[in-house]
Design brief:
44% of the residues lie in helices and 7% in strands. By secondary structure, it is mostly helical. The chain has a domain of 38 residues. A hairpin with a 4-residue loop joins strand 1 and strand 2. It is rod-shaped and about 120 Å long.
Length: 86
């Protein structure tokens, strides 16, 4: 079996190696936190709906598109639906 002391490259002490690992992990953790923060802010902005003007529940009836009233001729008077003898 290989000895763990032989796996370390020469020139770096165990303490220096430990410090480098801590620094790399700190930088990676900071980048992860920044990425999550940016993604959360983008999701919150995307989830908002634009303000809309209130719309009436019922639209007013447009009588110009309804059935035309019968024409009054002679001695008749007519309303929207019926004609009556005068």
């Amino acid at each position: 079996m290989a000895d763990y002391a032989d796996a370390n490259p020469p020139g770096l002490s165990t303490e220096a190696r430990t410090n480098m690992r801590k620094q790399v992990l700190t930088v990676l953790a900071g980048l992860l936190i920044a990425a999550v923060t940016i993604q959360t802010a983008a999701a919150a902005r995307h989830g908002r709906k634009p303000a809309r003007a209130p719309v009436a529940a019922t639209q007013p009836r447009d009588v110009s598109h309804g059935p035309s009233a019968p024409a009054a001729t002679g001695n008749k008077s007519c309303d929207i639906i019926w004609c009556y003898q005068d």
